[in-house]
Amino acid sequence: xxxxxxxxxxxxxxxxxxxxxxxxxxxxxxxxxxxxxxxxxxxxxxxxxxxxxxxxxxxxxxxxxxxxxxxxxxxxxxxxxxxxxxxxxxxxxxxxxxxxxxxxxxxxxxxxxxxxxxxxxxxxxxxxxxxxxxxxxxxxxxxxxxxxxxxxxxxxxxxxxxxxxxxxxxxxxxxxxxxxxxxxxxxxxxxxxxxxxxxxxxxxxxxxxxxxxxxxxxxxxxxxxxxxxxxxxxxxxxxxxxxxxxxxxxxxxxxxxxxxxxxxxxxxxxxxxxxxxxxxxxxxxxxxxxxxxxxxxxxxxxxxxxxxxxxxxxxxxxxxxxxxxxxxxxxxxxxxxxxxxxxxxxxxxxxxxxxxxx
Length: 358
What we know:
Blueprint (H helix, E strand, L loop, with lengths): L14 H33 L2 H6 L14 E7 L4 E7 L5 H4 L8 H12 L8 H29 L6 H31 L3 H15 L8 H29 L7 H18 L1 H20 L9 H12 L1 H4 L3 H37 L1
Antiparallel strand pairs: 1-2
């Protein structure tokens, strides 16, 4: 039997170096994907002009009632989502009140660049970076640490190791970031000072308990944990197969990029129903946060899923199939290849230091 060529593991690098590599990857991914998301948001706004949103008494999917001051959009850079609140007096209203008419995605790119400048394509970048970079650092660093503990600390082997490590790492990242996202949304929507924000959080905890800081955690976990488990399972599998095919001892940039795109697309397709539910739920919660409405007005994840099924059947749960795959696959590819490149860079530095010592 011939000897198998398997991607060799990356030499040990420190957690700080893993954090630097993942942070750089998150930055590059956000820079790459944000223009696609800005165009998507603008096309959504075109379908629902600002004066219509002001006059409306209900949310887009019949989710919640709301006042006429806010409109919530969902930014997603392929790594994570965050609510952007458009209200009177904020920068978004200049284009939202009088949106340019776009005939499609390419037309939107051209007209936004021509009439508003290239910088407008990255208008959602600051709030994305504030949340995406720390979330990605926690997620990727925890994955590598957990995978190594499971393999070398507990002696576990097999393809279930990345599946388990990926799910647990994402669970930890979501749990840590969820309260921060809630705080950021409140600050943006209500223009609160830090002292007012502290009082707002205290009031929220007093009324709804400590768990009120994790509103929206359930649907986020329902989508992100299975996605991450499937993603890392397929990534490690595809990476090894590509290394064997091209007889590479270790994955290079192109192998990591290809494996990331394939595994990201597979995970995105399989978890699409959870993404549809989570998107509706997150916008609902975002609009309730801007209004300070009662928790009783929120709708359960299971109820939203049944509502979608009743309205549109199984097709409703797979709505947005192509846009999600087109965004998630390249985002995963850019992120993982940048991360692996960063780790290889630090690995080389560490090896050079060892050679100098010896």
